[in-house]
Amino acid sequence: xxxxxxxxxxxxxxxxxxxxxxxxxxxxxxxxxxxVVRAAEPVGFDAALxxxxxxxxxxxxxxxxxxxxxDAGVVELSLVAEELGRALAPVPFVEHVVASRLxxxxxxxxxxxxxxxxxxxxxxxxxxxxxxxxxxxxxxVADAVVGLHDGDLVLLAAPGRRxxxxxxxxxxxxxxxxxxxxxxxxxxxxxxxxxxxxxxxxKVLTAAALIGLxxxxxxxxxxxxxxxxxxxxVIATLQGVSFPLADVHIGVVGGRQLCRRxxxxxxHEPDTEPALQAVAMAYAAEVATHGVDVAxxxxxxxxxxxxxxxxxxxLRAKGWALAGGDPRRDVRRVGESRLRAAGI
Amino acid sequence: MDFSTIELDEEHLALRDQVRxxxxxxxxxxxxxxxxxxxxGFNERVHLAMAERGWIVPRWPVERGGAGLDAxxxxxxxxxxxxxxxxxxTLDTTRLVLAAVERYASDAIREDVxxxxxxxxxxxxxxxxxxxxxxxIASAKTRATRDGDNWxxxxxxxxxxxxxxxxxxxxxxxxxxxxxxxxxxxxFLVPLDTPGIEIQGxxxxxxxxxxxxxxxxxxxxxxYRLGEVNAGWGVLHxxxxxxxxxxxxxxxxxxxxxxxxxxxxxxxxxxxAARWATTPGSDGSxxxxxxxxxxxxxxxxxxxxxxxxxxxxxxxxxxxxxxxxGGAELLDLVGPAGLLSGGTPGAVEGGLFDYTHxxxxxxxxxxxxxxxFRNIIAQHDLGLPRADxxxxxxxxxxxxx
Lengths: 344, 401
Hints:
The complex is a heterodimer of chains A (344) and B (401). Chain A has 344 residues and is α+β, with helices and mostly antiparallel strands. Helix content of chain A is 55%, strand content 9%. Chain A has a domain at 193-341: Butyryl-CoA Dehydrogenase, subunit A, domain 3 (Up-down Bundle), CATH 1.20.140. Chain A has helices spanning 15-31, 34-39, 47-55, 74-87, 93-105, 110-117, 191-227, 239-268, 276-297, 300-303, 309-322, 327-341, and strands spanning 123-125, 134-136, 144-149, 152-157, 174-176, 182-186, 229-230, 233-234. In chain A, the strands form three sheets. Chain A has a four-stranded mixed beta sheet with strand order 1-3-4-6. A two-stranded antiparallel ribbon of chain A has the order 2-5. In chain A, helix 4 packs antiparallel against helix 8, helix 5 packs antiparallel against helix 7 (191-227) and helix 9 packs antiparallel against helix 11 (309-322). Chain A is globular. By secondary structure, chain B is α+β, with helices and mostly antiparallel strands. In chain B, the strands form two sheets. In chain B, strands 1-4-5-8 form a four-stranded mixed beta sheet. Mean pLDDT of chain B is 93; it is low at 396-401. Chain B has helices at 10-26, 29-38, 44-52, 71-82, 89-104, 110-119, 232-243, 260-277, 291-309, 312-334, 352-359, 370-381; strands at residues 124-127, 143-147, 150-158, 168-174, 185-191, 197-203, 209-221, 225-226. The relative contact order of chain B is 0.09. Chains A and B meet through helix 7, strand 8, helix 8, helix 9 and helix 12 of A and helix 4, helix 8, helix 9, helix 10 and helix 12 of B.
């Protein structure tokens, strides 16, 4: 953002957007308590929760009307992602909706799109171009994985379920091997550009999910410190406790606005501020890494126990952020974009 | 949600051109030299020229000395004068106090002060902090004692930036030492030419000049009181909220926090770093050829973006954190040549990195320290209980001096 540029700075949600946010906040709060999160371990998938999410229209809302969708955009999806993150919902929502939109943009067969829109066929997304076997974050539950292979947009399908790779985040990680899976090319001339756009969508939505996750963890820390006492005072009154929590809040509110603005630009002016999605991702990864640590640490030894719900947040923050690779690569991208913008 | 470019109609385009022409004429090398020499954050020639155009109070109607601009017009003015680096400290403190003057000043002084502000001849500085008080401005010990229709003021205020260029200070004074801390305070608009006032300059290591103002049996009429006796905390709150960046313009145009003004310096430094990084050295290589340099510039850019997007009290802290860390990081990147003062042979970008590094720490203190804002966030946003500290409710009379 150029602080001297004359642009609107309206971060408010309109009535429809607020309704979307509220509906999904209510849904996840009710349908996805931490008992559901724990029960879905270690694969990190709850088929019943997925079905209910699909029935709410989450997988079709951001597809065009002609593909059975509601023409919502990345902004609306980011609102869902944030609420999903707050609840740590074990569903492959972000990758699935981004891959679905990518298929639509590439003009994939209506049959493929319809099965994605109604959630009956789960799509995964390989987040770097496939050059060999690659760990893909939702491949253990995805029926097909969309990726870029030899410059082509491809759909990869394994003969059976891919083997889950147990991991810190209890995420449905699995290895995808383009040489060993059935490979369907979605013929499109600008595959690389469409793929790059999809990765930018993934970054914004994952960043939004990480912001929700961080705020969820923060709420646990805040509740704990309000009741815990030491040396005769409630520990929340100690600035050594309250200031780190305030810093997490600062990261959350700024990160949220970054995500919303980055989503808006993808919807309205995708060529403007092209590194904004990388900014959102890099910042959200930093905020989440710091935030989940503060949230567990203010609970002392108890926060470090597996029994504490804050452990669920701590263990997922990295798993979600790293699915797309080292966030420092996004930092470098931002630097390169800034150098280009300087006109050199 | 809307972040679109604002299409300017003819009227606003004309205003933009007018402001740009003004900036080119008035915000010049000579002006920068004056600012560098004085550290005033104010230039009377520029200030009076702005006043002639109604730009001190741009949204006021023309007949009151304003320019009759709408929210967009005021934003154009802010952006177009901010880009070339208008000195704005005294302009801002003057504007901050205006709402309190409009609402609370006595009939005897109100119109004269408001008209004077619009005309540029009246400027106002903040008289909040005391030498031993810091950001806890409600602990003010400067005394105002009633004497018939007058008040007699004794005490001192520090960081009264711009006082030597101002006609009034917006003073918070203790009028009832026996009342609870926040209930014994009264606000005054004290004419700075009153006998008994002494203004002494203080230099910061950034080169700014601020002041300490001593009040020794300063006698002013009750006409200069703002609001009811002992109701000063409420009078102060309007300006304080604006200074804290709480609120907004309601038009979706405003910066996310009041401190965005200060973090603009990091934006300038980052642009300068990009120029430095892409300039070939004697061997033809450029710093930007090194991926580590690109990554470090990226790291500062991410923090700057985050700062620009963070709203309200949180933004106040984030902007300061970003410029303090970013100013130091860019200096490291450029190396020893970045430390050279502007004008010295070999200085990079006219000493901009040196300046930014010296400028940044003040952002964590001006307008209340970042710790004040972390306390506000802890209590108001997170709902954490406030520490029960002896000073919270202290009766000032019994708390020492």
